[in-house]
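help with this.
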Amino acid sequence: MTNTSSSMSGLASEPTAPGPLSLPAGGDSAPWNDTEEMGLPEQPAAAFNANPPNKGADQLPTIGHIGRYALKYQIGEGGLGRVFAAHDPLLSRLIAIKTLNLEIAAEEREAFNALFLNEARAAGGLSHPHIVTVFDAGISDNRVYIAMELLKGRDLRQLRLEGWTPTPTQAALVVRRVADALAYAHSKGVVHR
């Protein structure tokens, strides 16, 4: 069994205010802000939501539109919706678009749309380094959407499938970042479910 007390000493004394988190490194605190510093496996050039090489967001093929946003490719899909990478022509950047994907009656759709837009309003009022930034939300052609920051990289599930096993310190930092984000959201009256 690994003794984690020495590798995690000092975690409790770190500040919980929004901002870069630090861990002790040889007696000094050093920011742990990117994949290399966290000791994560190297990311392939074309990660699941990164731009394909040598193409700007506006040069990628368009698969559809929602509002002013040009959908470029699907990032993920869940039981209630889908997430796309999209180009915002106004700001000339790649963003993420979350949509509902429900085949339901009009009355039910209105209720789901209202809940979805409430989610956007709640998330849009948050500003924290470990919570995705919401840029816009609305309804276009009867499709409700949330436009948000597109994060590059892979999620923890993908890293685990690729064989990455976090050290106790790395696991503690991931949990701490999630806990800090949740505590911040709760302090603003937002509950993640």
Q: What stands out?
A: The radius of gyration is 19 Å. Residues 1-36, 41-54 have pLDDT under 50 and may be disordered.
